[in-house]
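Hey all, quick one. A colleague (J.T.) asked me to put the adenosine-5'-diphosphate job into the tracker so the inputs and the structure tokens live in one place instead of scattered across chat threads. No bug as far as I know, just bookkeeping. Sequence used:
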Amino acid sequence: MSILVLNAGSSTLKYAVFDQSTCGELASGIAILDGLSESTQLRLQYGEVQQTDTVAGIAGYSEAMAWILGRLKPLVDDDPIHAVGHRVVHGGTEFSQATLVDARVCESIHRLSMLAPLHNPLALSLIETVQTMIPSAKHVAVFDTSFFTQLPKRAWLYPLPYEWYEQYGIRRFGFHGISHAYCAERAADLLNRKDDALLRLVICHLGNGCSATAVRGALPVSTTMGFTPLEGLMMGTRSGSVDPGIPMHLIQHLGLTATQVEETLNRQSGLLGVSGVSSDFREVELAAASGDGRATLAIEMFADRIRSTIGAMTVTLGGIDGLVFTAGIGEHSATLRSRVCSGLDCIGLQIHEGKNEANQCNRDIAEENSTGSIFIVRTMEETAIAREVKRLLTQQRTTGSS
Ligand code: ADP
């Protein structure tokens, strides 16, 4: 029996197949649905075999899904897909763990679309499509927000009129929870402190979207993303936290519409907005290396904000035992990690430049005399989703529910 995991982004569909008993990965791939191009790139990897097809005429996710299932068929003939794990960005406060999809769950995902308009409608339509394609499988929704349902109230409530929370549901939700929970568990493992409720970690998830989370034991204590995934650290195209007076000023006095401001904060800001070069960190790094002043400034601002967040979270935790860098930038950019860590000796953290440049995952890259460890962890959201699916199905078998 196997588990298929689907992780739909705004222009990509990542997928992976796992052995249900071991949660070992059997195959994985990505469909790159670039709206600007007429053809779609679809990649599949199993064992040593890598296959890349560029296919024309794939209009959307359901066509890509049909291609993926067709390619997976020979692989899963002996090992049928028993369950499908769907990553869903917004589960509000309703879903504190993975949940078997039924009409009520679909209705909730739909209702929460207002809070995650780029992600939830996509996830829902994919769930519905795949339910019809693999009707015999159990479909499980795994939410990015679930981990943060355990945040303490003082961390999720905003300093706004309390009625706004009660009447309008304005509160912090937090995102990237699947990745943060996975990395926290991995770091606890690496430190040999798996069941230690006092372990203090700061996880920095630095991809196109960026967020940091303070974790004590296995529980989140604070996180940077908020009511929406726009708050917190500077990102590829998202501004992160800015003075809320700025949007008001632009709308009330300069004639921009709310939609224009929202679009700009989400898609034209961050690394792209400051550098004017790209939202892709590699391209901004290249431009900075060739002397582009704005690209250099964007990287400095990006690193400064991460560093001060680590400092604030360390104070919240009362110290730090482990700092984790993960996702595209966190896992691959030694210069960014070095820049972030320069100045963290005031909280006892010292990076070993040689180990940092070696870029090895799951290895402590701190100096011997650093009071806390520093790790690069390869985030494995699909594996974490497969484990959640397995846990839920085992729980259901044990309790006898369907
Ligand atoms: P997403 O949030 O879409 O999953 P990723 O985790 O794949 O994004 O991260 C994408 C970011 O990682 C991009 O800004 C990209 O430039 C950056 N990145 C990927 N590889 C490298 C690298 N070798 N060096 C620096 N940055 C990298």
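Adding what we noticed when we looked at it: The chain has a mean pLDDT of 93. Residues 9, 207-209, 236, 280-282, 327-329, 332-333 surround adenosine-5'-diphosphate (CB under 6 Å).
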